[in-house]
Design a protein that fits this description.
Helix content is 0%, strand content 49%. The radius of gyration is 34 Å and the shape is rod-shaped. The protein starts with a strand and ends with a strand. It comes from Winogradskyella litoriviva. Keywords: Biotin.
Length: 139
């Protein structure tokens, strides 16, 4: 026998379940016996599961054409420019830090994949950029 205590509109109730057969429950509320007939089973709700479809196109890392004379550095993701570490005319080497891009509260270092000279900078600190936006051009 299970016993429950309820409070409805500031009134206290003690409910004792005496028996449960099929859809009939025999229970006692504050000493009075009742037969309760259930219309349908109470179904438990399940926590929904988020299902994401697989990406149609796998992410491809940015690659620079080694034969090209001009190199364009583009934003890999949308974000805000936190700092520029180069200026026009600077000579840079491969893996030098060019700028820091903040996206989703994370700082992303944008590095040079090729040596060269900075010919133009298309962004400013604090500017918001979209994915694939041109940031810096190298020669």
């Amino acid at each position: 026998m299970k016993s429950y205590k309820f409070k409805v509109n500031e009134n206290g109730y003690t409910v004792n379940i005496k028996s449960h057969e099929d859809n009939v429950i025999n229970l006692e509320v504050n000493g009075t016996t009742y037969d309760v007939i259930l219309k349908a089973d109470v179904k438990k709700t399940k926590t929904p599961t988020l299902v994401r479809a697989a990406s149609k196109q796998p992410a491809v890392p940015l690659k620079v054409d080694p034969k090209s004379t001009k190199t364009k550095i583009v934003a890999p993701i949308p974000g805000t420019i936190l700092s520029l570490n180069v200026k026009v005319g600077d000579t840079i080497k491969e893996n030098d830090l060019l700028l820091v891009l903040e996206a989703m509260k994370m700082e992303n270092n944008i590095i040079a994949e090729k040596s060269g000279v900075v010919t133009s900078i298309k962004v400013q600190v604090g500017e918001q950029v979209l994915q694939d936006a041109l940031l810096i051009e190298l020669e």
